[in-house]
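ok so i was messing around last nite and threw this chain in just to see what happens. nothing serious, just curious
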Amino acid sequence: MKIKVSEFIIRYLERLGVDTIFGMPGAHVLPIYDALYNSNIQAILAKHEQGAAFMAGGYTKASGKLAACIATAGPGATNLITGIANAYADKQPVIAITGEAPTYIFGKGGLQESSGEGGSFNQAALFKHITRYSKSIERTDYLPQVLIQASKALLAANPGPVLLSIPFNVQSELIEEALLDDLIVKQDPIYSPVDETRLERFHSLLLQARQPVIVAGYGAIRSGAMASINTLSQMLQIPVASSLKGKGVVSEDSPLSLGSLGVTSSGNAYKFIVEKSDLLIILGAGFNERTSYLWDHSLLKDRKIVQIDHDPHQLEKVFDAELAICGDIGEVIDALLARLDKTGKAHHPINETENRITDLKSSAEGDYTIFKSGFSLAEAFFDKLAEHFPHQIRVFDDNIIFAQNFYEVSSSNRYYPNSGISSLGHAIPAAIGAQFTTRKPTFAILGDGGFQMCCMEIMTAVNYRLPLNVVLFNNGTMGLIRKNQHQLYQQRFINCDFVNPDYSHLAESFGINYKQVTSPEDLDHLFQQYDLRQAINLIDIAIDKDAFPNYSSKR
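result:
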């Protein structure tokens, strides 16, 4: 039996386990939308294709499953680029489906033609370097092989986005339905046993260390190793610092938590490592520019390093390790814990390390204080967020620097900083995408500059009745740009300040709740009187545009 290519594609997505697809229809992709009509896949209408791609990214972050987005030819496809680039940087399994002008007008200057012929731009080529696999499907005879390659990229141990661009006429051509059975739509897990020699070396280095410190990244969360890392930390009194993406690997209110390590953090973790540690155990942290303080050599100097990561490309990428182990972080830590139980534990004084950390945090001053003054409302907001929502919330954060310093993330909450390519306007659509998985209290945090790039996506939440809290830090300026122009360019401010709309009227026009916060009393009222679990709220927190964090971007 033969079916249309459009139906074949949707049946393929169903076999991949895709249950939600984000996008906007257009003439050149309508056959695929028509095939969605009778599908179990829920089609979500975004307000902009970039928002659709960010929603897909938020969906896969929150669920761990494949995500999908769809757009028409030309501008629909080009609008996806930023979101797909973000998914590529974050190694997210997002499949993007785009339409294309029909093949019989290639090179003739057809509407929204993007075949690369006759002076038109090459749509598929635009995605070549921001996807694991991209293909323009101009014939049906190789479609199954294309989908097999797409599956391999999406289901790899280190996945990434895939683009399939399908001309309008090809979508309506016929293909044998039975070919669906030949497609590879799942990958058997690859189990690599923990290398006993390396495990013994890890055990030996740990027992020899006077003051080990764990630096945990997002890879530790992805591997499900959080409980095991917490057990190891408690057993041997090992302090835990995290990368920005790893916040919450262990609860940050724990006496053994050093908080976040990074150039925009308080500096507690940095100071403890530099002054006290002799062994760093780096678990799933990429040690990128932010985490490494722009690859500051003093952070690693004269101390041994054990690095564990499931991605071999991350091992020793930016430093030499005494021991590098490629494997599942949870499995390695569990094997180490079993060995410690058999051979005896290292004898670290039970309270000495905790007391060191307490003294460090209470004495933090000078260069280690990122926020001298002017940010009390932001700090108070995150204190109350941690107090009132200790469990089972999601936070998507474009602003980053406030939460990195003020928000103590518990191990049962999930914090998603805007990593990837750090695009403004990410938090709102990503948070909306996450709400199409399991419904949880969800916060999208961003500045007023980024808000104006994506605020219409709030109507997507309204359309689908999705609870959402949008937290807007309002200072009428592009804060990072103004800070840099203040610090590095002698206060020659240009193109950083702007006029905001009346956000109360904007919220009213959206049909959502609005709360302006200008005082601690306003925060009390917000958390005591507003429904932050089931409603859609715009929370407008005033901050001073001339109060700047105490760090230099050096660029």
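not much to say yet. The longest strand covers residues 94-100.
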